[in-house]
Amino acid sequence: MGMSKAKRQMLGQPGRVGVARGEAWRDSISDEAGGPPSEHPDTGSARLKVGAGTLLEAALTRENLKAAWKRVKANKGAAGVDGLDIEHTAELLRTSWPQTRQALLAGTYRPQPVRKVMIPKPDGSQRELGIPTVLDRLIQQALLQVLQPLIDPSFSDHSHGFRPGRRAHDAVKAARAYVQSGKRVVVDVDLAKFFDRVNHDILIDRLQKRIDDAGVIRLVRAYLNAGIMAGGVVVDRYQGTPQGGPLSPLLANVLLDEVDKALEARGYSFARYADDCNVYVGSLKAGQRVMALLRKLYAGLKLQINEAKSAVGSVFGRKFLGYALWVAKGREIKYAVAHKAVEDFKARIRQLTRRSGGRSMEQVVQRLRPYMLGWKAYFALAQTPKVWRELDEWLRHRLRAIQLWHWKRPATMYRELKALGAGETAAKRVAANSRRWWRNSNHLLKTVLTIAYFDRLGVPRLS
Q: Which pTM does this prediction carry?
């Protein structure tokens, strides 16, 4: 299936909506483990016409499904519990789609359970991800393309996560502006296992206040209730919306918008990205009042604040979306990469460059490039050139050590270094210290495996 990209348009009115109107585009979501929050590329459009029928019928039009399939295919996700990948699902749909579509319109369609996978995080912990089948990802994507342009315009301007035309940089820039204006105390709130604890009844109630389509509501609840398969056993789910499905971020924003509107009504300065919310005030006393308010608001949604990660304190001791803030000359507030983000970067680089036999330096660099380029783009706001230089030097030091490990034998080191243009003395000295990988890679070897050498290999520079 294919479809030409449509121009980005944002149409729709805040509040409750019924039959879809106008032409809209939507925004994809992705959730890469171990990296910074992902940004969201353009993904096509869903053309919805006056009198086209229900929202569910609009979602299941041929044109909308083509756009949805294009996005699902581009994401190259893994198979769900049915074991069917993109290609096998495409083959199945050629014959079974009419029956599936009829079941969706009749309200008898039942999504398959999501496949539970645990994604390692840089700090050694794990995060649960629920992978729907490719068919269910297609249906969710088709729903998202119809619902997002109708619901999104009603969200708070302080919400930046998983929305068309918005990204994490917008939230960080807003935070800096508040601090520059003199609000140096932050109410930093982290929700405990938010996606696992979303109350289905409350979420459906909030969704019904925004859309008037029984078929869509019924299907969304079916997706919320779909179980989780782990170790071959299906576990029923009575709360939570698993990370991994296209609809999850939109549903999260539907729920949390209620808190945004309460903060707006009281005139507070805040920025939210998904379940990360920072409120900026002028004093600790004011911050404590805001924290008490947030506890009350989240409790009303049956959500719980993670007390260990939440606090009221100086903005200069907290991080937001991987960024920290600092005061430069002239009292100008500038961006920095938070210490934990730097440590997470190093941990991920260590994972990607693990010493293992048979891999060439070119293969190591191929694995590094996507992560490094994404990380560099995400932290492009940072105004700390010294940090970039230090990370570049650390990375090249590590790559030199890995190259020595690949060569292993002193004779191989000598031969390869001479081939790279090393002098006799340098080649002999490096080869003589063949077992001291780390120490040996930071002196004479730097004159052979230079910055230009790594540039030619395609290693991205952060500085």
A: 0.82
